[in-house]
Amino acid sequence: MRTRTCHSRSLSRLRRSVRRRGSVLVLAVAMLVVILAFAAFSIDVGYITLSKAQLQTATDASALSAARELSRGLGPRPELTPGGVAAVVRDAAVSVAGSNRMADTPAVHADGPRDVRLGQILWDSSTNSTITVWGVSPYNAVEVTLRRIEAGESSGDRPLSLFLAPVIGHETAEIQTRAVCGLLPGVGFRPTATQNSDILPITYDLVSWQQFVLITQLTRRENGGPAVEAKLAVGSESRVSDAALRSEPQFVLVKKGDEGDGDGDGDDDGEGILDDPYGVGFGEDNYAYDPATGTVTRGQDGIPEFDLYPGGGSNLSSGNRGLLRLGDPGASTLDRQISQGVNQADLAGYNGEINFENGPLDVAGNPGLKTSLQSALGSIVGQTRALPIFTTVEGNGSNAEYTLVQFIGVRILAVNLSGNNKYVIVQPGVVVDATVIPADIAVEDATLFTAAKLYQ
Questions:
Q1: CA gap 241, 397 in Å, rounded
Q2: In which region does residue 344 sit, left (phi positive, over 0), alpha (psi from -120 to 50) or beta (all else)?
Q3: How many angstroms separate the first and last alpha carbons of the chain?
Q4: Which pLDDT tens digit goes with each residue over 337-392?
Q5: What residues does each domain of the chain span?
Q6: Phi/psi of residue 189, each to 5°?
Q7: Strand ranges, E, within 90-128
Q8: Dist CA 144 CA 339 (whole Å)
Q9: What is the pTM of this model?
């Protein structure tokens, strides 16, 4: 009896042990599935995160490179049309995107017309923030969107293939990144400890600048139409007054020659040369700037020029040719400011900045446009600088004081400060500088812009 009872108990324990082993096996299999799911989640989520970071890096680099081309369509006489700017911007974006690697692709794919759009970015001074408007020119902003979302594509923007997630039914992941980059228009400069401002310590009068702009706009040939000479109806005055300009001066458009294009040969072949009856130094086109090489040669590039040396002379004080004293008045300071820019110390007396949003600024003059500045000015031929514009000047020589009201961008084309034929020839240009102070102004009115910067 006792033997049979012990045997029964042993069998019962054996059955329970077998049942336990079966339960553990089922539980182990279930846990293995969960562990694999977590492994898939961890590995693939890490892969997706890394891939998205790589794609964002490519997007940022693509937008920055594209934005550096935007200046070619800005300013009063842009190098490229809006269509031309759009083409070079998209080419730059696609090229830089393709130079970046991302996950399983050696070159990030970008489609210019689809992935790149252009527009304007503006500064809202009331909120200290930016506003973007797409599709409006002149363009100073670019948006680049790179993606891995196009199913069935073999061009590099197909969804990202995953490693272990297919076990739980997820074979791919979609990734998309975006970057907005732009050049904000500005009205002033704030140099930093490491970055000088490209300000030319030479000033030009507002009346001559406005006359130059108005006349050159009127004398442009549009769509092959007849060339005309624009004359300001100011009687015997050699310069139009501020008041006259503000009250919309009257213009007389006179066809030159015998109703032709200005060369007096009776036909409209575009060979005429526009006169400069009031000595502003406008309309000449004797120098050509090559953006590809950064060099200036004799020739024509379609952008009118004016002369800083005699230009505005009747509005300059005796013994002063428009030099400004920003900081130390010595010649070595002027050399440095011309060739290397204006630094923080130079503007210490102006709270470290020149910002015309705060109103006009009175700045002392330096006597004489010195022959010794020939080398410094010659070293920046082909480069752009911000030219200060003044409305009034009081005093003479080192006692002169100019009232500055704005900056304009100019490109230095030719310099000669020796002999009787002195000149500093410039043409309108665009200054792109990291120290420009953004301002709430229209893009089409600006010639100063901040350096390319990511905003979104």
A1: 24
A2: alpha
A3: 89
A4: 999 999 999 999 999 999 998 899 999 988 766 788 899 999 999 999 999 999 98
A5: 16-185, 196-219+274-431, 220-272
A6: -135, 145
A7: 116-124
A8: 36
A9: 0.78
